[in-house]
Fold this sequence. Notes:
Blueprint: E1 4-14, H1 24-39, E2 43-46, H2 51-57, E3 62-69, H3 72-81, H4 83-88, E4 95-96, E5 102-108, H5 115-128
Amino acid sequence: MSGFVIAQLNIARMRYQIDAPEMADFVANLDHINALAEAAPGFVWRFISDSDVEAEVFEADILVNLSTWTDVESLYHYVYGTAHADIMRSRKQWFDPVGTHSVMWWHPSGSPPQLNVAKQRLDILTSQGPGPQAFTFKKKFDAPGQ
């Protein structure tokens, strides 16, 4: 096993306030989807929402999902092979487009990535395209030293 985990950030701009009736179906599924991730093979850690930290890094209407996984394949299976995919098929009713909305990178094992670092990785992907510091499922890179 390498000394790295795959970190992923994805963001979404809410069309409505989180407590609006239009967001009710999304909110009703959050606990289930988060529990599904936490029980998934390869899951390591996820950022638990902290509005103070999020407000320092992102705009108020941005929802943040930051997590780490043992490998890209485990993350891919969770994203596209579980109920998570079913919920996300409805995302257009809850979220507006934000351009680049997700990024992955290899993060040293043992401590979680910081939200501001995750935002920097998203910015790198947006400005430079996929590379070893910031990539996507379509253009993946191996962990350092592999």
